[in-house]
Amino acid sequence: MLPSRPGRGSSGVIHARLIVDELRKQGVTDVLGVPDNAAKALLDLLAAEHAIRVLTVTREGEAFAIASGLWVGGRTPVVLIQNTGLLETGDALRGTAMRMRVPLVCLVTVRGYARMAALGLRPAPGTLSGELLSRPDLDSVALLTEPTLTAWGVPWETVSSDADAARVSAAFERARELEQPVAVLITSETVAA
Amino acid sequence: MTRDDVLRPLARLRGAAVVVTTMGAVRPWARLSEHALDFASADSAMGHAADFALGIALAQPARTVICLNGDGSMLMSLGTLVTIVASGATNLVLFVLQNDTYEVTGNQPVPGAGRVDYSAMARAAGFARAHTFSDTAAYEAALPSILQGAGPVCVTVKVEPGSETPLGRGPEQAAAYLRPSLAESARQLRRALVDPR
What we know:
By secondary structure, chain A is of the alpha/beta class. Helix content of chain A is 42%, strand content 18%.
């Protein structure tokens, strides 16, 4: 498995403008996804970006297929989804962007990360069990996110605070170098100011 | 109608359109067309040909993009009908070849076989135009106008089940566009669309 940079814990918020600046630097033309609370500030800013088209889809798997078509047609799309939606995308991601080797960055807001980190839990495939995944004090999707990406062969960068914003551009560089999708795990809520 | 009744006139009239095929249409289309803008959504993700085609249509608004979808594939992503309209794409022509079966796995019936009206669904989703054909002459007469003007357009054609088998890719394939890998096919189409030297 390709090395992925782990998170440094959640600082609570990330300024959405910093992420948008990185997307602009990378020449992003389209953002595809399904909204979630953690991405609200980011989506609000993107809505005002005339050079970036935001398209809301009906299910997250659609985003990867549309993004792949956009790339084939010469655009520079990104996918923006929550980790719950990431789990839904399995075959769409595998059969389109991954199998087509599309250098696609997928921004994934990580629901449940702060609680998981506060409990000192680090998800790993060998540690997952029905008992752990049904704990009422944990959001199981946070436990599953990194092991799922590992299983699917998708490396990731983690953005936990404003200081990590440059990792968005690093993900683009990795995606181009590897010719495949790379995820950016956004482990804190995005805020406007 | 047979599938060839649908594809043969379309192959004559497609012009410079991108044609994305999937499942039972992949090999029959290749017997009629060998074009740099043909793309087989094979060895890929079932149910994602229409949304992949939508991406191309959004990226290439001056070019018509035709998707030859099946009813089984369409059922897997009905939400895409809504996304297509919401995206504002006007250059997508979405065929639903309705044979009421999952043909490549042995013609098992799809859910709602014989009862589902795909063009009515497309119309309800907001498609600019939606047609249903079960007669070859009527289809051939309408096809030129279907391929012109603003879309998105949904064209449901009721066809007999065929006998296509599961798809593969590789140098042994008779269909030229199934010989490269999916990744190489995607790059070939990208070059044809973005850098056609």
